[in-house]
Amino acid sequence: AEQLFKEVKRPDEVIYNMMMNGYGKAGQMAKAEQLFDEMKQNGPRPNEVTYSTMIDGYAKAGQMTKAEQLFDEMQQKRIWPNEMIYSSMIHGYAKTGQMETAEALFEGMKQKGLCPDAVTYTTMIVGFAKAGRMNNAKELFDEMERKKIPHNDILYSVLIDGYLATGHIEMAKTIFKASPSFRERVEPVLG
């Protein structure tokens, strides 16, 4: 892919974005950053997809300072973050244990009229559970159910593990009993 990229005389934003995405997925953010800088200097101008690609790569690499800088920069250029960009930022902050910042972004996202999806909710719930903030995790789980946002067994497992880790055995049992698919799979085995 690198060789083909070098052969293109004037790559457009689609080609740049594809290359940066590939580098991000390969964990080579320094190379993605080089292309991003080249794009800013020589054109074409970075767009929403470009920023989304870079922010997601930095967030997955745990480089939240760089992700935050681009998040701010894009807004200064009047490119507004979409659900995917917010989700990447939230994931990065949750991954690095910065749940207060993740929570502020999550609330800010909703205030801007953007709707968090199941992945964003799951990220927040997992982050809260890892931080021992089970009340927050359960509140978001309940919000998902009220809004009829689909969830899977992973969330039940996260809540059960979180409650067990924080010594709330009865709540873990309650969540276990509330999960029909867990009961269907486990009760026959337990007999």
Description:
The chain has 191 residues and is mainly alpha-helical. It is 76% helix and 0% strand. The chain contains 12 helices and no strands. Helix 7 runs antiparallel to helix 8, helix 8 runs antiparallel to helix 9 and helix 8 packs parallel to helix 10. The radius of gyration is 20 Å and the shape is elongated. The model has no long low-confidence stretch (mean pLDDT 91).
Which spans of ≥5 residues are poorly predicted at pLDDT below 50?
none
Average pLDDT across residues? 91
What is the succession of H and E elements? HHHHHHHHHHHH
Number of helices: 12
Q: Using the CA coordinates, give the radius of gyration.
A: 20 Å
Strand content range: under 5%
Structural class: mainly alpha
Largest beta sheet, briefly?
none
**Apparent shape:** elongated
The beta-strand count equals 0
Helix content: over 70%
Topology readout:
Elements: H1 2-7, H2 13-25, H3 29-42, H4 48-60, H5 64-76, H6 83-95, H7 99-111, H8 118-130, H9 134-146, H10 153-165, H11 169-178, H12 180-190
Helix pairs in contact: 2-3, 2-4, 3-4, 4-5, 4-6, 5-6, 6-7, 6-8, 7-8, 8-9, 8-10, 9-10, 10-11
Question: Quick recap of the structure?
Answer:
The chain has 191 residues and is mostly helical. It is 76% helix and 0% strand. The chain has 12 helices and no strands.
Observed structural traits:
mainly alpha, 191 residues, 12 helices
